[in-house]
Amino acid sequence: MTLNGQELKEIQEQGAPKPSWQKALDYAMDKRGTPYVWGGTTKRGYDCSGLMLRAYESAGIDLPRTAAQQYSAFSRKISWKNLKPGDLVFFSGLGHVGMISRPGHMVHSPRTGDVVKEEKLSAWRRQAFVGAVRPDPAGVKLTTHLAKLRQAPAPVMPTATL
Fold first, then answer.
1. CATH number for the domain including 113?
2. How many distinct structural domains can be found in the chain?
3. Which residue from 20, 40, 66, 82 could staple onto 45, CB 3.0 to 4.6 Å apart?
4. Whole-model pTM?
């Protein structure tokens, strides 16, 4: 039996595990139509960072809760011209986050009264762009570890007595 190129590609893809970003993107895209709920992190409703939190959690990557914390969780930032699907994009002083779904588009949970949706990145979004990150397990673990060290009380130092 001879396979054509498309058939061979399909067989290869079936055996290869999905990358984390693809799992996260599939999760977020599957939630389109779910209502925006401020502070929401469940199928009843999501806010912007709650959607990203659950999407990457489904891919085995733990993110912090808020958009600002998610941005700060990674030292490597991605420029507008280097965005790829799965990247988290941040806007308006870190007050909003979405995920690149395909070139020039993002999936996000926009605001009260709206739903999770995919939309084109507009000129207005470009102007409000703060930065982007490409989530990976190592980046979050390192940042979480450093944050815990900063919050820990200072070690007790021995004092000399005369």
1. 3.90.1720.10
2. 1
3. 40
4. 0.78
